Amino acid sequence: MVLTFFILYMVAATVYFNNREKSWGIWISLLLFSFGSGAFGKSLVENFFPFLVEHEFIDPSYEYLFQFSYSIGSFLNQNVSPYCFIMFALTYSGLFSKKTIRILSLLLLIPLFFMVLNTTFYPKVSHNYILVGIWAIPCFIIGTIYMLYSTIKDKNVYTRKDKKLLNYLLIPPFLANVFTNYIGHIVGLTSMWRLNAIPVSLAAIALVIMSTKMGILGIRLKLEKQTFDSTVKAVTSGTALLNHTIKNELAKIDLLTNQLKETFPGNEPENINLILKSTNHVLELSSRIQSKLDIMEIKESEFWLSDLIKSSIDLIQPNISGITIIKNYEIDAKVYGDFVHLQETALNIMKNAIEAMDQSGVLQVKIYQTRKKTHIDFIDNGKGIEKDKVSQIFDPFFSTKKRVGNFGLGLTYCYNVLTKHEGAITVKSELGQGTTISLSIPNTRVFDKQFIQESKRELAGDISYG
Question: What SS3 string covers 273-309?
Answer without folding.
Answer: HHHHHHHHHHHHHHHHHHHHHCCCCCCCEEEEHHHHH
